[in-house]
Every structure is written in C-alpha cells, then in structure tokens.
Design a protein that fits this description.
By secondary structure, the protein is mainly beta. The longest helix is centred in the middle third of the chain and has 9 residues.
Length: 146
Amino acid sequence: MAMLPTGVTVVSASGPDGPAGATANAVCSLSIEPMLMLACLDRGSRTLLAVQAANHFGVSVLHAGQEPIARAFATKAPVADKWDGVGWSERDGIPAIDDALLWIACDLRDVIAAGDHVIVTGEVRDLEGGKGDPLVFSGGGYRPLG
C-alpha cells in the first residue's frame, strides 16, 4: 500500500491544552451533497481525542514546500511542540496551518472504529483555497506532485 500516492494533510482541532494536530494521508472527500469529508486517525491519537471533544475538526492540505510541517505533525512529540515555529491561526474555533494549499472546516458527524484507526466524517462548513502544488506521500517518502 506504500506505493499508493496520497495527499498530505494535517487534521487539527482545539484541545484542552491548546491546538492538537496530526499528519494524515487517509483523508478524502466523501460526499458532494451534503458536502462531507472523511479522515482516518490512529486510535491512540491525541488529535482524535481533541476532535471528539471539540465536535469539529480542520483539514489543512499541505503544499510541496511544507514537508517539514508534515514531518513535525507525524511525530508523537508533545502537542505544543508540534506547533512550535509553525505559522497557524484559529479560524472559527479550529486551528489552521497558514499558507496551506487548502483548508477545510468540518463539524464532526460520525466516529467509526476501523482496525487500528478511527474514521471520522465531518460536514464541511467552510473552506479556503491557496496556491501551489500538493505535497504527496508515496513509496515511503514525501514528494512534490510534478
């Protein structure tokens, strides 16, 4: 499955100790009407706990120049450390990575156990587009699309 190319995102939510976020590549559009997103988070993810507590989440789609952000949010570092040095803002109560290719705000809809991950679905309530080429993960590494 490592050869299946995927976009790279940071799924985020406001938690009790500040913003929480995790790199996720199992993220996709689920439905057009209503507009729904799907994201898969590790069962032990602190971000999953924040998403469930906040009842909403954001998806920052990273561009090709944001590989360091993808690497930082893929770690088990303390929650605050992941955001250190990363430009971000809170939009409608949801943390968003500055300069992301796309940012999507979702109200939590479903939480579904699936193997060692949990699938969350959300109804899109806002989205903002940026510019650039998406960051892609394939073959065990980050790559620009081109």
